Amino acid sequence: MGAGAFVSRALPDHLLQARSSATRRHEPSFVGRSLSRRGQVLSKTCVAVTPTTSRARPFVPGTPALEVFPISTWSSLITRNWQRVTARMLDYGEAAGYLPLREAIASYLGPSRAVQCNPDQVIVVSGTQQAIDLSARVLLDPGDRVWMEAFSYRAAQAALLGAGAKLISIPVDEEGLNFSMKAARGSKARLVYVTPSHQYPLGVTMSLRRRLSLLEWAHHAKAWILEDDYDSEYRYVGRPLAALQGLDTDGRVIYMGTFSKVLFPSLRLGYLIVPQDLVQAFSAARATIGWCSPILDQAVLADFINEGHFTRHIRRMRPLYAERQSALVETLQHECGSMLSLRPDKAGIHMTLSLPDGIDEREAVRHATNRGIIVQPLSSFAVDSQNRDCKGLVLGYGAYNVEQIKEAATKLAAALRAAAS
Fold first, then answer.
1. % of the chain residues with pLDDT over 70
2. pTM given for the model
3. Domain-located, residue 334
4. Buried (b) or exposed (e) across 184-213, using 16+ Cβ within 10 A?
């Protein structure tokens, strides 16, 4: 008979050594076959994610002036909230968001943006991208048609395409989304995604006439309007315009905003204002994709708004961003002369530079990159391939001081001259 089974006190050295990837047997990739249709669409959709190492290089859009954010004030609010933290704040919160923050958002949006809502209608989300994704989950079925401005936020395109929507490109002119009521009534759409206060990326503002026409169309078509109000606080001519949502008497507008552009991107807090009869559906859907945002972050932000720090920060930033935009426009005008036709934008922390005939967009991007300048081609924002022959550059200026902007604009002007030769 055998002596039985024994466990060795030591293992051979070769079994304890981790094999590097180079020594592992190569296995074929099945990723392409295992993805869902939604996964395949998302994997192929171009959404620019700028590496952290490139944040300091002009002209990356979308980043505010982080160096002047009141860090000491924010830190003191974090400390105070930790000192008074309760067990309830460490538990799961409401899917719709921390009530004091929802109350603060509703109180702020009324007088500042003419948004009509109560705290129950506020859904706190992790930024604009989650707001769009959540809206698509609740309101769209695969194959539904969605109107979008001809040039639109690429991450919004990705979220809507990922939901199975069919995107319909609508032209944009100096009055914003350009459509005729007669043609619109014969065109079915389930939802319209629009940036009326400051069109992204072209920068135009939708006129009151167009806003009222869009609301009338949505009423007759029983369609939804997703209003992205991403940077309306930074308007340099007159007061910020009233939101489209405030004109809506039929409960057709879902309004969304973000604190990423106003405060700092890593905060990852934004909000949706939804019609009362959609509150339950949006709250339930919010719970399924992550339950809620961190409660302590929401508590700090609520204090930041309620104690006046938020409005003071906005007032402080408006002249700073206006100065930075002026530095960009004036330097390009000085360096390029009659080559470019430039005019200041009325709002925001980015602007779009139209390229004249004789300058190829791809060549302009290549020459700018060779000089250490990051610019995004306007064609990459086109919803429809037919619009990709439009030429321009999207330039963010919010994150760079005047000296950086002047130096980078001088290099950009040289890149444009090289592209024109």
1. 86
2. 0.88
3. yes
4. beeeebbbbbbbbbbbbbbbbbbeeebbeb
Q: Which of 72-81, 330-339, 360-369, 385-394 has the lowest mean pLDDT?
A: 385-394
Judgement on whether residues 85 and 153 belong to the same structural domain of the protein: yes
Question: Which domain covers residue 77, as residue numbers?
Answer: 71-310
pLDDT given at position 360: 93
Strands 145-149 and 224-228: unpaired
| Three-state SS at 64 | coil
Can you give the length of the chain in residues?
Answer: 421
Count of domains forming the chain: 2
Helices marked H in 70-202: 71-83, 87-90, 99-113, 128-139, 154-162, 181-185
Q: Which of 217, 284, 221, 276 is nearest to 251 (CA)?
A: 276
pLDDT digits (tens, 9 = 90+) for 244-268: 999 999 999 999 999 998 999 999 9
- Report the Cα 353 to chain-centroid distance in Å: 20
Beta-carbon count within 10 A of 119 CB: 16
Are 240 and 335 found together in one domain?
Answer: no
The mean of the pLDDT values for the chain is 88
DSSP β-bridge partners for residue 44: none
Alpha-carbon torsion 109, 207, 132, 325, what sign? Answer: negative
Dihedral (CA of 4, 6, 12, 16) sign? positive
CATH number, residue 416: 3.90.1150.10
CB-side exposure of 11: number of CA atoms within 13 Å? 5
Let me know if residue 99 belongs to a domain: yes
